[in-house]
Amino acid sequence: MKKFTSINDIQDLEMILNEAIQLKANPYSFKDLGKNKTLGLIFMNPSFRTRLSMQKAALNLGMNVIVLNINQEGWKLEMEDGSIMNGDSVEHVKDAAAIMSVYCDIVGIRCFPELKSKEADYSENVLNSFLKYCTVPIVSMESATLHPLQSFTDLMTIKENWNKPSKPKVVLTWAPHIKALPQAVPNSFSEWMCKADVDFVITHPEGYELCEDFTNGATIISNQEEALKGADFVYVKNWSSYENYGSMPEVKEDWLLTNEKVKGTNKAKIMHCLPVRRNVELTDELLDGSDSLILKQAENRIYTAQTILKKMLVAP
Ligand code: AN0
Ligand code: CP
User: Fold this and answer.
1) Most buried by CB count within 10 Å: which residue of 32, 43, 56, 274?
2) Closest ligand 2 atom, residue 298 Cα
3) Looking at residue 172, which CATH number applies to its domain?
4) Distance of CA 102 to the CA centre of its chain
5) What is the per-residue pLDDT across 74-96, written as a single tens digit (0 to 9) for each?
6) CB–CB of 24/303 below 8 Å?
7) Which ligand 1 atom minimizes the distance to the CA of 238?
8) Residue 304: nearest ligand to its CA?
9) Within a domain: residue 248?
10) What is the pLDDT of residue 316?
11) Which domain holds residue 62?
């Protein structure tokens, strides 16, 4: 596997899900595969789970790991080809990516959107520059528009927690937040759910429509109560507006999910990628309740990362 930047890099979804489940049962079964191989992680934004689960996954495979928080510890990167670098930026991505490829056998990159220009963010300029100039496999650790490691994990967690022959109903619901957040997690979740064997519904307030490139195939219901009816899994996430890019249009109704609202579901399991602002995005009662899958999702981040790294080690 040369890159993992979206579901389009997966050939057989069912097969890779089973591979992750097998690795979870036997995490050290490939502990020599990564001997003398190095994973290099570049973070342009904060991270807790992605950083630690990638490291843990690499260690389980016997790899070495090096990490650079580039915005705090590295030189400011220039992304534009042919630019005259007489401004803020000190190092061109062309050089940085080429050098990472000498030091590392696999490179991970986290590059959030700036949420200023839709065109700039949705062009995935940063991720694409690394793809262009790195000569080793690249893993997205959340880019401007997608978070494929998270969605792979979410689907794995749904599969593990569903044992009926019928398709589960999965609802993605918008949640309140105090800051404008990227659309990467819901875009990516939607893209994966539309390809998975589930009935997928999205619900959000007016003004929070996601980019149709990723929601194609989903049922969109604007009334949250209606959307939640009979849900088996409820995935909670805030995102900022795509249309009025990066803004937070006013929401009059109460979108915070509560125990009361969950009563209309089919005893739904509650999911969130984390980090979560407790009692702003999701209540303590749901996060800490017996139907919460949040810790299982965080745990599974190890095994989906390990599956992707393993594929890159076996056939780079
Ligand atoms: C990020 C986001 O919403 O994309 C990362 C989530 C995994 N969350 C925040 O910035 C709080
Ligand atoms: N879910 C997730 O990607 O968490 P971090 O932002 O902490 O890595």
Assistant:
1) 43
2) 1
3) 3.40.50.1370
4) 27
5) 999 999 999 999 999 999 999 99
6) yes
7) 3
8) 2
9) yes
10) 81
11) 3-146+301-314
